[in-house]
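Hey,

The postdoc asked me to send both predictions to you directly instead of through the lab channel. I've kept everything plain text so nothing gets mangled by the mail client. Protein one:
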Amino acid sequence: MVVFGLPVLPGWADLPAWTPHPLLRKEVKGRGELRVAPFSPPSGELSFYSPDPETPPFTTTRVGEEATLRVESGKGNYHWIALHRNEPERELSLATVHFFSLVGPSPQAMLAVPKSRLEIVPSPLPREHSVYRAEEAWDFLLRFDGLPLAGQVATLYAPGQMAKGFRSDERGVVHVVFPEFSKPSGEQKTGHSRRPLQPFQLGVEHVMAGRHFTSVFQYEYGPAPLFHRSPWMGWLVTGVGMGGGLLLWRRGRGAKR
């Protein structure tokens, strides 16, 4: 169910410098409730897609307004949220997902259905209690009119990082390596995994018959695992573990005597 409210969420008046694209802002209100606001788009439609095949997509033309998405038990898991904006010679699709920690169907069928002409599709999405993480490689499918888009460059944007491009292979898949995690900032938050997170956007451009298409996928990623970020800490933990194991072994020998 979608309910409308304020024009925009408070404190969202300026476009962050780390991305050239618009943003979708999300605010979790409860286990099954999410507030969504497009970042001051001049025009567009906000659409919501459920992983439940019996729940049809909901689209609104109430431009620039905040919407609250409420999900019932049994229809949780990932939901797809997209802003579509059409102009005479351009078309923008800005999409994100949100994980509702309620029982629900797999999002695979939802991801397989085309939602715009040019799309970036996570392949796969992180599992529950997992996140995209810095220094890890994840696959995303580039798709145009439902077909893989090979040889196209997708550009990754993240706070405090240089933009980086990744070219799709013959299957239309880009292998994206997430950059280092920036120092704490106002953009960071804590996800359902309870880890610190910061936003990223993956964008792609395509021209067909004189029409310019832009697709952006927006979500969050977390810091690299501790062992990857601090080899000294890894050695320390390993040493402590070996020391503990040696102590238990010596105790065991003493008990046998």
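Protein two:
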Amino acid sequence: MPPSLNKNSPLMRLIEGIISSFSRLLRSRSKAQTVIAPSRGPLPHLEKPTVEPSPIGPVIQETVMAPVVQEIPKVESSSAGFLRCPIKIEGQALTPFTVRISAILDHSGTAIDPTSDKKWGRSAKDQKVKAFNGEVGEGPQCPQEPCGYSMRDSDEFFKNREINYVGVLSDGGKCTLQYDGHAGYDFPYPVLTAVVAPASGELYKAAQGTDSIYSAHWGKDHSFYIKHDNGFVTWFRHCEKLIDSIEAIIGSDFTKSYRVEGGASVAYSGNFENGKSGGTPAHLHFEVRDKDWKIVDPYQTKLWRD
């Protein structure tokens, strides 16, 4: 050590003090940075706290919809349930089962009777009238045509209301089944009652020689017919006239036709017979014929749509 730096000199004591202070500072900082870490064992399982949501509006419960199965629509055959009631009365919802009927199609001794070789009308008269429901009226030959017959017990026909049968008031009403050999259904309504197309098709006035049953034609009894799209044909007799728009197209040309839609008005009922109005009591005579122009019963074969 140089002689000038005596350890007891003031300078040396100052240097030793600085060194001592610096050493204490280093030891203090070293203790502060040295931390004994705790043992790192497995962390405790902490459950997630359950927090109930506070709804801010109505709770909507989700509904799981079942798979939609689309049904294939049932396709009716071309001859099933296609005819509407041909009579229309304003304010009345007439159907084939509520429309008034004064005469039915005779199933006894006629062309529709499988045991008969007769046709219709006078040639098929057998002093018996049979309805589609099996009810029969019979008796001795009536004094004048057309002929109706009663039940043996004189009870009413169609008491089960299969149809709204009213009969002919002047000949026993509901207790007499009309007519022997009859090829269609009679709807007794006043002159100028609306007649509608029972189904879509082509409307023709009946020319002479067209009808083999009653020899009906437009000049004789104002007969017309509609050829329907499925091959069936409906016949109408005793009408007062066709509606003006159809008459204007067909006129006296029986080769012409007029396209009509089911439910549309086509004519007016009447009492036209033997070439004149008033030749028969007011009613509409209605027939249904198949593709071979053979008479069929729309009630027996279920051709009505309502």
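Summary for protein two, as requested: The mean pLDDT is 84.

Thanks,
C.
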